[in-house]
Amino acid sequence: MSGTLLSFGHGYSAAALTRRLGRGWRVIGTTRRPEKALRLRNEGLEAHLWPGDELAPAIREATHILVSIAPDAAGDPVLVHHAHALAADVPNLLWLGYLSTTGVYGDHAGGWVDEETPLDPTTQRGRQRVLAETQWQALAERARLPLHIFRLAGIYGPGRGPFEKVRSGTARRIVKPGQYFSRIHVDDIAAVLAASIARPAPGSIYNVADDDPSPPEDVLAEAARLLGLPIPPEVAFDEAEMTPLARSFYAESKRVRNDRIKERLGVTLAYPDYRSGLGQLLASEN
User: Fold this and answer.
1) For the whole model, what pTM was predicted?
2) Average pLDDT of each block of 10 consecutive residues along the chain (286 residues)?
3) Is residue 19 within 8 Å of 10, Cβ to Cβ?
4) Residue-number span of the structural domain to which 62 is assigned
């Protein structure tokens, strides 16, 4: 399979998808930074600065579009700049993917959520994601766009693991009873997106998470075990010094079901839990 992928906000997950798609694909990526645009071009991609560069031709030529740009108070920035072009002139478009977050479900006190769970975010980031999802769904219905929404759990992978903090001795195991996070390895995100591209089902929503939602302190303990270092000390959540952003991640506790990516897309996760994922990260470092 081949095509032209237009990647708005070509970042960590989009780069993993590009690697998985491989040769035969034309990839057009946007970035806000000139130095990153140069790096993308050196990697064989077509790069555009966003916002600013004229993207109407790329939108018109795209067979697939991936949106990874975070929303703001107005919703999705891509729609602010390009809703008209997306609604008016996408003759080749077969698949449109929007990367959202499981934060749209809000707090469930450690309970399970799936794609049918009502959206009830408690954080500003979650509310902005709900707004962006709603905007994309409205445009897709109006313009008959092949929209697919992917609600990602906490992303980790090469360069985004806990090992550096454990090695440096700065890691702390912040303990909040009943706290659960779901996670997903970036390579498994790419596998889900590639499977959806191969089996498009416009209107679909997928949770993208592994099989093992776990307390965050367990992940740090496993990283220390793999490194052969002492387990970082425990700190009670109420006593921990944290930035407002870090503290906000503990405002919601839930476990995310992932049955749909397996049953509808046939995905088998390469890293079904944090233990296998962390083991792979350490092996790749070495």
Assistant:
1) 0.96
2) 95 97 94 95 94 91 97 94 92 97 96 98 94 98 97 95 91 94 98 98 98 96 96 93 86 96 98 97 89
3) no
4) 3-156+184-210+256-269
